[in-house]
Specification:
Structural class: alpha/beta
Largest sheet: 7 strands, parallel
Number of helices: 7
CATH class: Alpha Beta
Radius of gyration: 16 Å
Helix content: 40-55%
Strand order of the largest sheet: 4-3-2-1-5-6-7
Mean pLDDT: 94
Number of domains: 1
Bound molecules: adenosine monophosphate
CATH topology: Rossmann fold
Length: 192
């Protein structure tokens, strides 16, 4: 039987570690199942470690589509056969980000470390500079991104950014809460 093609692509930024609470891993797994079952392709950093690995394994187990984009220096650390689905190998981190961007319709940020923060911050910056209009969401599991939200509000209060900055991305406390906005931003009919 021919595989049904994915409808849209969601780029997910998340940690290459699991964090100190199993709730993060559980959320990554739950998201992976959801993406596969709803035929939304996962675009991600291509790794097999931490939440990134958990998410990709979950999509793969549920027979979903995956595009991993990994720079060659990380590939040496990861080993190619540990990756799932299609893989693009880039020369460097900058090309990786651009490739992830070009192949995605929207962005979702899960808990993660400084790499995750850097990736989502750059995506928000592109929105601020009008280079991008692709939607950006945060899955605020366990209130993980609360302090980031306060930081952004402080940046606006200190007038280092316009109030518009607060409209460039949206926080959701659970996958269930995120789904309607995600589907509508990807123009996927929830009844399909
Ligand atoms: P962090 O949030 O600091 O764990 O970083 C997550 C991001 O770091 C990923 O999206 C990658 O850019 C990068 N990264 C760190 N380690 C790896 C790895 N082993 N494989 C792939 N990407 C990694």
């Amino acid at each position: 039987m021919e595989k049904v093609k994915y409808k849209k692509s969601l780029c997910v930024f998340c940690g290459s570690k699991n964090g100190n609470n199993l709730i993060y891993k559980k959320a990554a797994k739950e998201l992976g199942t959801y993406l596969a079952k709803n035929k939304i392709r996962l675009v991600y950093g291509g790794g097999s470690l931490g939440l990134m690995g958990e998410l990709a394994s979950s999509v793969n187990r549920n027979k979903g589509d995956i595009l991993g984009v990994i720079p060659k220096h990380l590939l040496q650390i990861e080993g190619i056969n540990k990756n799932h689905g299609e893989i693009i190998i880039t020369d460097d981190m900058h090309t990786r980000k651009k490739t992830m961007y070009n192949n995605s319709d929207a962005f979702l940020c899960l808990p993660g470390g400084i790499g995750t923060l850097e990736e989502v911050s750059e995506t928000i910056t592109w929105f601020q500079l009008n280079i991008s209009r692709k939607p950006i969401f945060f899955l605020n599991i366990n209130g993980y991104w609360d302090k980031f939200r306060v930081l952004v509000e402080d940046i606006v209060s200190a007038e280092f950014a316009s109030k518009d900055l607060l409209n460039y991305f949206t926080f959701f406390e659970s996958l269930e809460a995120l789904v309607p906005s995600l589907l509508s931003s990807l123009e996927i009919d929830s009844k399909e």
